[in-house]
Amino acid sequence: MGLKRKDLLEIRSLEPAEIQTILDTAASMKEIASREIKKVPALRGKTVVNLFLEPSTRTRTSFEIAGKWLSADVINVSGSSSSVVKGETLMDTAKNIEAMSPDCVVIRHSASGAPHMLARALKCSIINAGDGMHEHPTQALLDLLTIREKRGHLEGLSVAIVGDIAHSRVARSNIAGMRKMGMSVTVAGPPTLIPPGIEELGVKVAYRLEDTIRDVDVIMMLRLQQERMTANYIPSLREYSRLYGLSLEKLAGARDDVLIMHPGPVNRGIEMAPEVADGPYSVILEQVANGVAVRMALLYLLLGGKPAEA
Amino acid sequence: MNLLIRNGRVIDPANGLDAPAEVLILDGRVSRVGPRLEVPAETPSVDAGGRVVAPGFMDIHVHLREPGQEYKETIATGTRAAAAGGFAAIACMANTQPVNDTRAVTDYITAQARAEGVVRVYPIGAVTRGLGGRELAELGELAEAGCVAYSDDGRPVMSSALLRRALEYAQAFGKPIVSHAEDATLADGGVMHEGFVSTDLGLRGIPAAAEEIMVARDIALAELTGHRVHIAHVSTAAAVRLLRDARARGVPVTGEVTPHHLLLTDETLRSYDANAKMAPPLRGKRDVEACREALADGTLDAIATDHAPHALADKEVELDQAANGIVGLETAVALCLTHLVRERVLDLGTLIARLTVGPARILDLPGGSLTPGAPGDVTILDLDREHVIDPGRFYSRARNTPFRGWRCVGAPWMTIVGGRVVMAEGVVERGPSR
Ligand SMILES: [Zn+2]
Q1: CB within 8 A of A223, min separation 6: which ones?
Q2: In this complex, do B199 and A198 lie within 8 Å of one another by their Cβ atoms?
Q3: Which of B277, B288, B105 is closest to B198 using CA atoms?
Q4: Which of B412, B421, B373 is CA-nearest to residue B46?
Q5: pLDDT tens profile A2-36
Q6: A196/B194 touch (CB, cutoff 8 Å), yes or no
Q7: ipTM
Q8: Neighbours of A110 (CB within 10 A)
Q9: Which end of chain B is flanked by fewer CB atoms within 10 Å, N or C?
Q10: A108 touches chain B (CB under 8 A)
Q11: Mean pLDDT, chain B, as a whole number?
């Protein structure tokens, strides 16, 4: 099997069959997590560099664990993405990392397209761990895995993605992945946070949360960056949470078997009431666990799984 | 300098001429144009070999980077790039370091151009001190020193009150104001045109309205003051519409468009290549079509390159941090011949008009025609020359172009300035040291 590609930069360029392969592989990786000794030799002798130029403890840790459970040597490089400040450019950093002969670089960066630059410059595999407002493909894959586990399938399911769509790479990756897997997607949020032309991605747009969540299989809440308020995307956090926060009352209108997801970390009380985040519909912790499995699957498929064909 | 150009098809839009003819330059000026000219003995001559002979091309929107950023470009390299691209005259923007907001800087530019340049250089002075947008620069002194216009290009003059005063004050010297029309509050932090593509790529957008609001304002101020405003690098359909209406009403406003806004759309950014990042950004397909129509019907008077040289380090970075702009002097003419004339967007005479008489009228420059007495500047075009754009061969110090690898048919063949051949078959005279 394996993936017929050097890099994983974005969901939008994956074939549905490739997504299927990644999810199947991730599902089998979960077995390793349940073992007493969580280590297999699949990537022994391989080096993975976690290049996190925008801070993210969660995603970095998830990749780190994934690499270690597969016996890869994992090196963490972190720093500010405003490399200009340090006088070192991303390309400088990339060339320095290349000198360490890694097999894979996992990059998180605040600029959309930074992983694409790196993929052009480096011979090793590049995994996008989130770039600017563009994509966060491993997050979308772990979300798909979580939904598939809970529902048994993806095709035909409906999802509401709620919140700051405009600035969300999670939304973009999920929209791409969900549409490819035959799901229908509605995005909801204040009009200031819905970007122009989003309908062209094959989604419906809604401005009112109550109507949107009534009949969907999955509600995916996005994290709101507090600075959206000072930039006048929203008048106040209070109003935002009243209109777009998921409270128990609003949830009462949703289906009994609805799944509630969030890429984390949750602003409890803003996007979501605490009782909702920690309640019976929430699969937030499963998402975290599946994150490791998906990242193991990707490392395995890009580095360890025999290359499909030369 | 004397020179006879024989055996050419002379196209001089200012004089409505398109015919086989000879062009005689005496003492650096056009003497006569006609079928068989009597020439003084021993006049050197050039055989145009049936190629197109036009007035020397002018690019009224160039960033030369000297003084201050000579690692990007110098007057020596920038004027060679111009000569290589078929331009006999260029106007250079004020955003140097220091800014061209005083006589001293203007004098430096003109002295340097005389010493090391190979084409004519017309400095454009700043509208406001340091391009700060707060206080007027000494517009009178700048005019005396030789500035042909005023512009804070690169930075919009956001204060309408200040621009109004600038327009009123500039009337005394007859020099137009060149406007970089962009509402900075709307453009804030954007790296590309706002629309579906920016949404898809997750890049901050600059709405077309950022340009249109300022074009509308500039037109209103031109009308209020009666003084000339020239809109630089027009890029949107609505901006074109505003200009067309204003001109129909007789408002003294002109416009230019760049080859990249005529040939590329926001889709070019899909590669995340910083060589497609510019201000104003590459727009949508409809905007490109509107700009092409406006160029054809004369609403847009000129093609200007907005030649913006940058070092690799300024471009080979994340898009958010990358510098705006591309080089254009060496690619503009070939691209326009290939993609506008061959594809019948413009006829050849109109293209030449937009590179000669159009820009000359906007900035009131000598040249732009082969009228007897005009500067002896000539551009000769080889319409059949096939080549591939190779930034490695640029005379410019910079390589930042999204047109690498584009195939072209047609190219400038010779550039003549004041009767002196400064470029022949792509090779620029060595002249003073680089
Ligand atoms: Zn400009």
Answers
A1: A163, A164, A262, A263, A264, A265, A266, A267, A271
A2: yes
A3: B277
A4: B421
A5: 688 999 999 999 999 999 999 999 999 998 888 88
A6: yes
A7: 0.88
A8: 17
A9: C
A10: no
A11: 96
